[in-house]
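INFO worker-7 received task bundle
INFO bundle size: 2
INFO processing item 0
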Amino acid sequence: MSIKFRQYHKKDLWLTAQADGRPLYYPYYIYRERAYVLQLTGRWNDSEAIQRRNLEFAVKTGDPWLAAKCRSLLSATLILKGDYDEAFRLAEEAARDFESLGDEKERAASHSYLGNIFYKQCEYAKAMEYFREYLAISEKEGNLKDAGHALGLIGVIYYDQGNYEEAMKYYDRQIKICEQTSDTIRLGWVTGNIGNVYLDQEDYVRAMEYYQRSLKCSQMVGNTAGICASIGNMAIIHAKAGRHQQALDGYNQQLALARAIGDERTEAYTMVNMGDLYYSQGRFGPARDCYQRQLEISVRFGDKPITSFGHYMLGKLERLSGDLKSSERCLDRAIALGREINLMHYLCSYLYQQALNYSDTGRPELATTTVKEALEIAGRVSNREITVKGSILKLQRECRDDRVALAEKLLELSSEHAEPRFQAEIEYALFRANRSEEHREKALSLYRSLNAATPEYEYRLMIGELETVL
C-alpha cells in the first residue's frame, strides 16, 4: 500500500487503505500532531488513545515503516505513564523493523526509548548502553537535535550516581546544541537538570536562576510536565530558605497540575517534598501521610530512587518519634534499594542515620563500620553534611573513653568547616564532650541564628535542649 503525502495539498494529509475491496481514509498526519500536542500538555491518556488508533490504521495500510513509527511513538507515551512492559515490547519491535528497513535515525529514537525504560527502573548500565548507541547513531547521521538529547540522557545517569562533574560536561554540551537548534522543549529540561546539580550542591541562587529559565522555556511551548517540574523545584528552594508558605503553595500548585494530567510519578515526588516540609515543621502526622502516599505510588511504578528516599524519610521520622525499631526497618529498606541502584548521593545519608540507630541501641561495632562506609561514600559524592556529621559520630565512637582527645579532634574538625550549620553541630558535640558553658553558649547562639534564617524542627529541638541544660 502506497502512502501519499505532499505538504501543501490538504487531500494528501489523509492515508488510504483497502478493506473488503473498499477504500478507507484516515487523517493520520493531523492525528499524529494532535497526539504530540496532547502528550506535551500532559493529556497522556488522550494522546495514547489517538496513537493506538494510528497504529491500528498503519497496520491496515501494510506499510512496515509507518507501523514501526506508530509503535515507537506509542512506546514514548506509555513510558510517561509507567507502562514499561508494553512500552518495551513496542520500542524493541520498532527498533528491529527500522533496522531491517535501513532507517538509522528512527532506530536511534527507538533505542532512546529502550534506554529510558531501563533508566526509569534504575538499570543504569543497560540504560547507558542504549543512550550511548543513540548518541553514536545520531552523530553519525548528522542529527544534531537527537545528539543533544542523547547527551542530556547520559548526563542524567551521571547525576543520579552523584558524578556531578561528568553530568555537567554532558549538560553543557546539550545546552549549546539546544540553543543552536532552537530546541526550546529540551532547553527547558536541560536547564532544569542543571538547576538540580546546583540544588544538590546547595548553590540555591544559581539553582533558582536555572529553574526560572526552565519554567520560561516550558511556558513558551505549553509543556505542562515541564511547568510542573519547575514549580516543584522552585518550591524546594523556598522550603530550604524557610519560606514555608511559599513552598507549600508551590507544592499544592504542582500537585494540582500533576493530578490534572494524570502524572502519578510527579505526584509521588510532590508528596515526598510536602512530607519533608511538614517534617521540618515537626508536623509528623501530615508528614507520615505524605510519605505513605508517596510510597504507595512509587512502589506501584517501580520507581526505586524515590521509593528508597521515602523509606529513608520515614526512618528519620520514626527515629525522632522515638521508635528506633521501626526506624531501623525503614532505613534497612532504603539502604538495600540505594545499594541496588548505586544511589550514592543519598546512600551515605541513609547509612549515617542507621549508624545513629546502631549507636543508640548499644551496637558500637555496627555503628562504627556503618559510619565509616557513609563517610567514604560522602567523600566520593561531595556530600559535606554527611562528611561533618559522620566525622563527629566516628570521633565519638573512637574517643569514647578519652574526652580530652575527642575535644582536640573536634576542634581540628571545626577549623576545616566554617559554615554556621557545621559549626553548630561541632560546638554541640564539644559541649557534650566536656560540658563546657562556653561551647553550650556558642552552640545555642548558632542554632538560634540558623532557626531564625531557616526554621527547622531539628534546630528547635537543639535549642530546647541547650536552653534547659545548666
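INFO item 0 finished
INFO processing item 1
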Amino acid sequence: MPRFRRPKPESPAMELHALPADRDEDDKKFAGSGSLEEDSSELPAPTAGDAAPDSGVRKIEAIQAVWGATYGKYILWSGLAMMMIIFELDNATLYNYQPYATSAFHKQSLLAALQTMQSVVTAAAKPPIAKLSDVIGRAEAYCICITFYIISYIICASAKSMDVYAGGMVFYSLGQTGTQVLNQILLSDISPQRWRGFVLAFSYFPFLVTPWVSASIVQSVITGIGWRWGYGMFAILMPFCASFIIIPLFVFQGRAKRKGLIQPRALSPVQFFHETDILGTLLLCGGAAMILIPISLASTLPKNWSNPRIDVLLGIGGACLLFPFYERKFARFPIVPLSFFKNTTIVLSCALAFFDGFGFSATHAYLYSFVVVTRGWDARHATYLVYINGVVQCLIGIGAGWIMYKTRRYKYLIFGACLVRTVGYGVMLRLRGASNATWELYIVQCIQGIGSGVISSAAVVAAQVAVSHAHLASVSAFFLLTMFIGSSTGYAVAGAIYTNKFRGFLHHYLPASSEAEIETVFNSITGTLPAFGTPERDGINNAYSDVLRLITWAALGLSFVMPILALCLKNGYLGEGHNGVDAVEEPGEANLGTEERIGLLHDVS
C-alpha cells in the first residue's frame, strides 16, 4: 500500500489532490467540485483527545512496506479470503440453530430477546475492538476475537439451560463482531478509495455459496448429530482457518520490526485503560443493552411493563445516556471521536445504516419460524429463503462497487437503493403471508437484497473516505455500530410485537384451544402442531401472518426517511488515494518496491 504524504497547507495540491498527469480532463473537473474535501473540512484535524497513538495503523503501514512487490500482498489477500469463508459459513449455519436451541429449552418466545441481546453486544463492541486494534495492532486483536469464538462454541454446545446458552451467545457475539470489524478494517487499510466499495462487497463472495452449502449442513445436523455439535465443530474449524490471516500478519510484523519500522511500545495498565476508553465502552454497551433488551422482554415477565425490573433496567439505561457527556469532558481518547458528529457525510451515512439495519432485522426476526410453522418446511428450505436476501445483496453490492469505480460517485446510487427498500416493504405487506405462493416469498427477499446491497456497499465508503487513515478503524466501527444498533432496535421492536400480539392472535383464531396448546405454539416451533388443512392449523398460520404484517408496517414506516437522507448526502468524488482527507499518492509511488517504501516510512517517522 503506498504511503500518502499530506501536502503543506499552502500547496495547490490541496485544491486538486495532486491529480496524476494521466487523469483525464473530466476527472480533473470533477475533483474540483463536490469533492470530499468540502465535507471533510468539517472534520477537525486529529488531536490528542480524538485518537490514541495509532500503533495499529503504523503496524499495517509497516507491513505494506515489507510485504514485497507481489507475493506478500497475495498471501494477505488469500488469508483474508480464508477468513471470510469460515466467517460466512459460521454465520450462515449457527444462526439457524437458534430456533431449535430455544425450542429445546421451551423458550421460543425469547428468540427475539436473544437476538436483540446479540445485536446489542455486536453493535456496542465494535468501537472498542476497533480502538483495541489501533492500540495493540490488527493481528493481536484477531487473536482475542478468535478466543471469544472458541469459548462461545464450548459454552453453547454444553449448555444445560437457556441462561447458560445466552451467556455463550454473548461470547459468540464478541467474537463475531470483532472478526467482522477487523476484516473490514484490514480490507480498507489496503485498498484505495475508488476501489473500496468493490473490494468490501467482493469480500463477501463466500456468501454466494455458503447459504446453499449451509442449508444442507443445518439439515444434516438438526436431523442427525444435533444442534449442539453444530456449535462444537466450529471450535476446531474457526481457529484453523483464522490462522491463515493471523500468522502472515505476525510474520510481516516481525520482518518490519527487524527493519526498524515498528518500535516496541510498553503500555502501563493506566495507559491501556485510557487509550481503549474502557469506561466509555461500559457506558455505551450498558446503555444500549439496558434500553433495548427490556423492550423485548417486557411482555414475557409478570405484570409486563409494570414489572419493577423493567423500570430499573430502563433507569440504568437512561443514566448511561451520559456517554456523550463523558466522552466530551473526561475521555482522553474517545472511543468515538466527537469530530465525527460534525461531519455531515459520516452522520448521514450512519443514519442510513441504522434504518437499513432496523428494517432488515425486524422483518427477519421471525421469518424462519414463520415458514417452518406455516409451510412445514424443513431446515434446508427455510435456510434457503432466509439467505436468498444475502446472496442477492452480495451480487448487487459487487455491481454497485464496480459502478462506483467507474463513475467515482455514490449519492444517487444510494438514493435509488433507498427507494427500492421502501417499495420492497410495501410489496412485503402483500406477498408475505401464509396464503402466498413460494415464489412470492422469494421475490420479496430478492427486492430487499437489491436495496441493501447498494446501501451497505456505498454508504460505508462515503463514511470512510471522509476521514484520514488514522481514523479509518474508528469510523468503520462507528458505521457498523449504528447499523447494528438499528438491527438491535429492529429485533427489539419485532420481539415486542410478537410477545404482545401473537398470543392474542392465537386466542382470536383458536377460541377453543386450551392455554397449554396456545403456549406450545407461542414458545416452540418443534412441538406437535395440528395437521395442515384443519381449522386449527389455518388459525395458527393466520396468526403468524398477522403478527409478521404488523412488524412489516413498522419497517415500512421508518423506511420513508431513507430517501430523504440520501438526497442530503454530498455527491463526493472517489479519487485514487486512500481517502479524501490525506493527499493522494504521488505519481509513480504506486509501483515502488519494498526498499523505496521503507524509505518513505523512515522519512515520515
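INFO item 1 finished
INFO post-check item 1: The chain has a mean pLDDT of 77.
INFO post-check item 1: The chain has 27 helices and no strands.
INFO worker-7 idle
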